[in-house]
Write a structure and sequence with these properties.
The chain has 108 residues and is α+β, with helices and mostly antiparallel strands. 39% of the residues lie in helices and 13% in strands. It has two helices and five strands. The protein has two domains: 1-12 and 60-108, Arylsulfatase, C-terminal domain, CATH 3.30.1120.10; 19-52, no CATH class. A hairpin with a 2-residue loop joins strand 1 (2-3) and strand 2 (6-9).
């Protein structure tokens, strides 16, 4: 998220499945999705397996960069500007909530 010369970064998170069965379900879903895209006539039913449980790691702290002064994003300023980080995280969270609310109202 950018605000003027400031850029808030939420570092990538490696999300894994809680067990091997979850990974197997994902692989099966991907196989069926590819088959449906290329040969929809071969798919006779909707994928109804359970959604696998995820093993969510502790989220890393957001990072803050002043891209005008640091275009390579090498100097994380989050600890020096905690209020700016809080404000930008709050704005970003509000945006995600708004998007999710709109998505939930889409009638298919």
């Amino acid at each position: 998220m950018r605000q003027g010369s400031w850029k808030l970064v939420r570092p990538a998170v490696n999300i894994a499945f809680a067990d091997a069965e979850g990974q197997r379900l994902l692989e099966r879903y991907v196989e069926l999705d590819i088959e449906y895209k290329y040969h929809p006539e071969n798919i006779q039913s909707i994928f109804t397996d359970m959604i696998p449980e995820l093993a969510l790691p502790t989220l890393p702290a957001p990072e803050l960069y002043h891209i005008e002064d640091d275009p390579q994003e090498r100097n994380n300023l989050a600890t020096l500007h905690p209020e700016r980080v809080r404000q930008m995280v709050s704005a970003l969270d509000s945006w995600f909530e708004e998007v999710e609310s709109e998505r939930a109202r889409i009638v298919v």
